[in-house]
Amino acid sequence: MKLLPKNCFSISTMAIGAALFAQTAVHAQGPAIDSGINHKLLAAAQGSIVELPGLLTEKLPMNAYQKIVQPGPQYLISDDPEYIRVPEGVAFREAVEPGTVRLYVYNVNGVKEPEKITTKIIAVIKNTGKTPMHLRMLKFSSQKPTTSYFYAGKQGLADFFASTPQTTIRTIQPGGVLAIDPAHEKNIVKYDELVHGFYEFVIDQPGEVSVLQTNTTSSTAASFARITNVLPSKSQSGAGRGIFGVSNYRLLTQNTIDTKDGISQIIVADGKQDGWVLGKESSSGRIATLAGNYGVLYNMEIKWKSTDGRGLALVTWNARSDNNQWCGAMANTMVVSKGKFKEGIIQLPADKLVTRKAPEAVLVQVFPPAANGEEQVIKLTYSPPGASCLPTPLVFIPVTME
Fold first, then answer.
1. CA distance 220 to 399
2. By the 8 A CB rule, do 209 and 124 touch?
3. Where does the UniProt annotation place the signal sequence (predicted)?
4. E-strand stretches of 24-132
């Protein structure tokens, strides 16, 4: 994923299974919100780009939060090598146990020497057990191969959040292999096209998950039998590969946001306050770092109240747009609780493919104050968006409801 500028921030990792993390609070008053900005935020459609000149900075006051590791599926990601430069090879291979598995595939046909060719990139599972394996898909997101990486990342999250468990059960005999996503067997991948898929499925036998690049004519079974070389890590790009110890977080604010205190923010997926999860990459035996926490789900609960009668607008923006060539745009998708707009999935932005840089912000939701000023809870489901630069700032702006 071309989204982690190496000169933006230092990477601090956390131990597998670590239970609790807190973001440092900064007690400072944010910039004032004038009537023009107030009106823009209230007039904007949900998910639209709103220009907020002079307001957006990473130095806004911070809201402290804690992250609690939640039970979740075995989590696998294939994103190293991100660009597969050889006609045939294994980009990813890991063993899985019976139970629930989450898999994120993010690989590109990078073959250009001696010439550019078309390929197939296929995620497969082998039944390594002694009896038939039954596989049922719980969550499913699959995009056609594309050079619009922002679209794939944004639409991929939207499709994953919207998907529901399937009733179809597929059977794999002992020693047999099956394409996890049947579309991979049909899709032809041109040079520089991304194969993007996000899946959660349950199995009842031990297995082995692989991601292969192969020719366009061989069957999945023939390709799997023929291609045995696991490609080395490239490390210059991509979030990483392996099986990781954290798949779900519960994020809780330590204190209640009060509109009287002015503008404030939470920053996630920055590699500092929100450290990267660790796992293992089996082909090398090394500890793996999931740089970006892609595919990890954050279930957020943000407490707030209004002691001055104002509501709260939530926006996000591309905070690292000037860091390097890969940070010029952001495209995201979240699930947000009810406010001025109904509860549900919202693409950010919804009116364009991407947002670029300040003063552009994207309106996520506007939360009216409670009639008696009592505490409320904002709920968000978030996962770091593939192809976009990180971190993701969540900015809370008090607004006078018109």
1. 56
2. yes
3. 1-28
4. 49-51, 65-70, 74-79, 83-84, 89-96, 99-109, 120-127
Q: What is the pLDDT of residues 226-239, one digit of tens each?
A: 999 999 987 667 89
User: Of 252, 390, 254, 386, which Cα lies nearest the Cα of 316?
Assistant: 390
What single DSSP character describes residue 114? S
The span from the CA of 363 to the CA of 308, in Å, is 22
Helices (H) and strands (E) in the chain, counts: 4, 26
Summarised one tens digit per residue, pLDDT across range 206-259 is 999 999 999 999 999 999 999 999 999 876 678 999 999 999 999 999 999 999
Whether the upstream peptide bond of residue 391 has omega within 30° of 0, thus cis, is yes
Q: Give the tens place of pLDDT for each residue, 64-80.
A: 999 999 999 999 999 99
The Cα–Cα gap between 84 and 89 comes to 8
* Residue ranges of domains in the chain, CATH in brackets: 20-72+246-399 (no CATH), 87-232 (2.60.120)
Enter the pTM of the model.
0.91
Is residue 257 within 8 A of residue 65, CB to CB? The reply is no
pLDDT at 8 over 90: no
Closest CA to 382 of 157, 81, 141: 157
